[in-house]
């Protein structure tokens, strides 16, 4: 039984805009950013059908976001490779968002 309160579409849009902001900015703490990203994605998918394709997109987003945070940890926020990683993170976030919208329990 799902004891979580469903979130509305406006809150879901806010969750994805916050994730997009996290991808584009320089985090104070990469570890805190990882935790916050996982919390926000969990909130966004709470009211959806958890199909394999959604989990694949979520896993890909987590992997690329974690890799981006590791690059920031190791090379700093000025690393030229971050542009490519940010692009990939945005791509997978868009996939998660589209799947959430198409598989919502509404």
Q: How many angstroms does the end-to-end distance come to? A: 17 Å
Strand fraction equals: under 5%
Question: Low-confidence parts, pLDDT < 50 over ≥5 residues?
Answer: 1-10
Order of helices and strands: HHHH
Which whole number gives the mean pLDDT?
A: 87
Q: What percent of the residues sit in helical stretches (DSSP H or I)? A: over 70%
Largest sheet, in brief, is: none
Number of helices: 4
Rg value:
14 Å
Q: What would you call the structural class?
A: mainly alpha
- Can you tell me the overall shape? elongated
* Number of extended strands: 0
Topology:
Elements (H helix, E strand, L loop, with lengths): L8 H16 L5 H15 L7 H24 L6 H21 L4
Helix pairs in contact: 1-2, 1-4, 2-3, 3-4
Describe this structure in words.
The relative contact order is 0.17. By secondary structure, this protein is mainly alpha-helical. 72% of the residues lie in helices and 0% in strands. The two termini are 17 Å apart. The protein is elongated, with a radius of gyration of 14 Å. Helix 2 packs antiparallel against helix 3.
Describe, in short, the structure shown.
The chain is an all-alpha fold and 106 residues long. The chain has 4 helices and no strands.
Task: Give short descriptive properties of this protein.
mainly alpha, disordered N terminus, 106 residues
